[in-house]
Amino acid sequence: MGLGAVSANQLALWLSWPAILGEFGPSPLLGDPPGQPSASSRPDDTRPVADLRGPFSESVLCGMGDHERIGISVSGGLDSLAVLIEAARIADMDGRRIIAVMAEMTDDAGNSNVPVVRRLLAASGLRNIGLHITATGESPAGEPDWHLEGPNLDALPSVNRSLLEKAEDNGATVVMGGNGADELLGTVRYMFGALTAARDWRAVRSYWSDTIGEDRQALPAESLALATRLLPRAWRSHLYFATEWPELSVLKTPEIVSAAHREHVASWSAQWISEALKQHTTRHQSWAQMAAWDAVFPLHVLPGPGPVPLRHPFLTPSFVDAAQRFPLARRYDPTLPHPYWRQKAAVFSLIPTAMRGILPTAKQTFRNDLAYRFLAGKSDAANLIACDVVDEKAWLATRDASLVNRVNALEAWTREAVRRGYSICD
User: Fold this and answer.
1) Of 50, 53, 228, 419, which sits 20 to 30 A from 320 (CA to CA)?
2) pLDDT average, residue stretch 174-201
3) How many other CB atoms are found less than 10 A from the CB of residue 229?
4) Do residues 69 and 97 lie in contact, with contact meaning Cβ atoms separated by under 8 Å?
5) Helix H or strand E segment including 124
6) Which tens digits make up the pLDDT trace of 133-154?
């Protein structure tokens, strides 16, 4: 006798545009909901938070728990570096050990991230922190952990599994990373209104230079965001959604979804969009507030790929609550000398002043490397095709990296579910 059934309708919802673009699982496939939201979309305490350093330190300490050797997943960016520096500070006080682990990636300029991380560690003055690298193409000893609720939505679960195995091989019993900082603390678009309201004219000029000065195509959207402040809230929300999420306004379902489930996916997507618009209409005054909310919610922290726990200090309930109450205008700092720093001012503030001379002045991005890896590992989607969730012809034709990544994850999860004795049916 089988263990239970996986609904093909539910599988299909994981292939909806809201779920793919929002990077979440819309409903549990088996068992409980896929992770739990890190925080309410509206904190009970609405008092502004002026300084994030205290909440961040508490969150890092909570992630360290009672572990004696802690791994920090570093990438060369500010977010993971902030976690590393704070964890090292705490470890120095109580005699624990920190190691750094990383996955080798090639950035969009064709450069490896390994020299960047090596330079940061060498210049940081952090003592006794070894760096352990998962090389490109290195395969994990085990498969990423399988969970009842649904697939692991990490961009590269096998790479993260290798990284965590590397940490375990070097004595770490927990690993922490910088996930969530961009979404929670990065400067969002449509900020002219917030900066003007704060009467920070230097910030207004600087923000203009960093946005419209770099890309004239930003001017219509930023202007529209200001103009819609005079409109009724419902109109404001609809215009925001059409501007920010044109894909959701036009595309109802991906072509790869089979005809048998397209209507169901389209109906669910329309309902999701309706709820999102209602959220914005009732709770948010400006497009900047809407964009900040959309960057985070729905927020689910799924279990890691194993074999040791993977924790995210930026995504603990207490820190998400604090970040929500940190003024939007404070996420941008016109006094900093580099656009990357100005756009990441809230994270920048978490790093000690003495270390700021070593910080990267531009963000490494890895879109091309990720897209290549997704497409190179394109699944045959045999189970999803067999249960008529995915249209075989459309799947063979697609080169959309976001679709391929989601189907790869869903197919891997479904294959393991079948192996364990679950059936796929409506």
Assistant:
1) 228
2) 93
3) 11
4) yes
5) helix 114-124
6) 999 989 999 999 999 989 988 8
